[in-house]
Design brief:
Helix content: under 10%
Number of domains: 1
Number of helices: 1
Order of helices and strands: EEHEEEE
Structural class: mainly beta
Shape: globular
Distance between the termini: 31 Å
Strand order of the largest sheet: 1-2-3-6-5-4
Number of strands: 6
Oligomer: single chain
């Protein structure tokens, strides 16, 4: 395993302003990862389920807290599936999604 790149895991929290009105705020934290293309089997199985699999990200299991969005090289991905590869690593399967804004948003 060559953990040689970084990604940002994104979660959301509600922050209230001085009037008590809540606003959804993005919270991001950087973790090390290894990145691969998804396999043909994963790609075609995803397509049959209405998904558009793009990349598989492998990170240390302790770094993952159930986030559903990640950012990698200025592109946001929805995490549609996870797999515990072993006790040390977890695989995050990501797809670019219209519902996730890309870029600096």
């Amino acid at each position: 395993m060559n953990i040689s790149d970084v990604l940002n895991l994104i979660s959301y929290q509600i922050v209230k302003n001085e009037y008590g009105v809540g606003r959804k705020t993005e919270v991001s934290r950087q973790v090390y990862c290894d990145v691969h293309s998804v396999t043909q089997t994963e790609f075609f199985a995803g397509q049959q389920s209405g998904l558009k699999p793009n990349l598989k990200f492998t990170i240390f299991s302790g770094d993952y807290n159930g986030e559903t969005v990640l950012k990698f090289h200025d592109e946001k991905y929805t995490i549609y599936r996870t797999y515990n590869a072993n006790s040390d690593y977890i695989e995050l399967y990501g797809q670019k999604d219209i519902g996730v804004q890309n870029g600096s948003n």
